[in-house]
Design goal:
Elements (H helix, E strand, L loop, with lengths): L6 H7 L12 H16 L3 H14 L4 H14 L2 H14 L3 H13 L3 H14 L4 H13 L3 H14 L4 H13 L3 H14 L4 H13 L3 H14 L4 H13 L3 H13 L5 H6 L10 H9 L1
Helix pairs in contact: 2-3, 2-4, 3-4, 4-5, 4-6, 5-6, 6-7, 6-8, 7-8, 8-9, 9-10, 10-11, 10-12, 11-12, 12-13, 12-14, 13-14, 14-15
Length: 291
């Protein structure tokens, strides 16, 4: 299946990132390199990998083919091979974009410490690499270093004040710290920048909910469901909010919708303390018994 390439990644992949190493087969190497790029642009990952592999056989020190094959493995989800190729490319040409992509591969495998190390190297080479700050912020967040994550997302916002994504991510970190007012402010900015940001709407609703503002939470949850009717998280948030307001029929309606949309953790639903007020309601019992 063809996958749409991120713009930054396309910029890296579609143009050589170094001069081709001198080789008797330099022309053929370059031909295979561009063939790989064209195939990658089409989303034909296996064919692209084959072209890059043939190029590398002609010139094992051709770091641009190594780098692009590593990028292709990354897009394909073969993270171990991506790390191997990007490490080889970095040994030949340590460049911030390559550290960034190897960091992405480490991040994808849950290896947050080496990911953070690579993102930091990318930043040290290019302090204007906004993507590296964003990616390191994500890694810090996953590693539960929340203050460091906030600092990095703040840096992204300084460099790109129009980044709805950075505001939303920082809001998520504030929410994880229990700083709900700060989270709401960041999610509000994200929604201002991108009114159709489903996650920002949903998690601003969660922050309102956690702050005891159930009516405000329901406004955001309902907006999120209107934009994406399959959003089971927002539907479940509506159910919990109505339960908190002791409105069992409305709570059951939204609970049924969340299950219909894919929330199938019935054991959690049975034990969720936020549904305590509707647990004995006939509509709740009917929903549980049907699952």
């Amino acid at each position: 299946m063809k996958k749409k390439l991120p713009l930054l990644l396309m910029m890296i992949l579609l143009f050589p990132i170094c001069d081709l190493a001198a080789s008797p087969d330099a022309d053929q190497y370059q031909k295979l390199f561009y063939e790989g790029n064209a195939l990658l642009e089409k989303g034909e990952f296996d064919a692209a990998i084959d072209a890059y592999t043939r190029a590398i056989k002609l010139n094992p020190k051709g770091y641009d083919a190594l780098a692009n094959r590593g990028e292709t493995f990354l897009l394909k989800g073969d993270f171990a091979s991506a790390i191997t190729d990007l490490t080889a490319a970095l040994s030949l040409h340590p460049k911030d974009t390559l550290y960034l992509r190897r960091g992405d591969a480490y991040f994808a495998t849950g290896k947050y410490d080496p990911a953070i190390s690579d993102f930091t190297r990318a930043i040290s080479q290019n302090p204007e690499n906004t993507q590296a700050f964003y990616s390191r912020g994500m890694a810090y967040f996953r590693a539960k270093n929340r203050d460091a994550a906030i600092a990095d997302f703040t840096k992204v916002i300084e460099q790109n004040p129009a980044s709805a994504q950075a505001y939303a991510r920082r809001g998520s970190v504030y929410g994880a710290k229990g700083m709900y007012d700060a989270a709401i402010a960041d999610f509000a900015k994200a929604v201002e920048l991108d009114p159709n940001d489903i996650d920002a709407l949903t998690y601003r609703g969660v922050s309102y909910y956690n702050n005891g503002k159930y009516t405000e939470a329901m406004i955001d949850f309902e907006k999120a469901v209107n934009i994406a009717p399959e959003n089971f998280r927002a539907a479940y948030g509506m159910a919990r909010s109505h339960a908190r307001l002791n409105q069992p029929e409305e709570a059951c309606k939204w609970l049924a919708k969340s299950i219909e949309n894919g929330f199938n953790n019935i054991d959690y639903i049975r034990q969720d303390p936020d549904l305590e007020t509707i647990r004995e309601a006939p509509c709740f019992q009917k929903i549980i018994s049907a699952e």
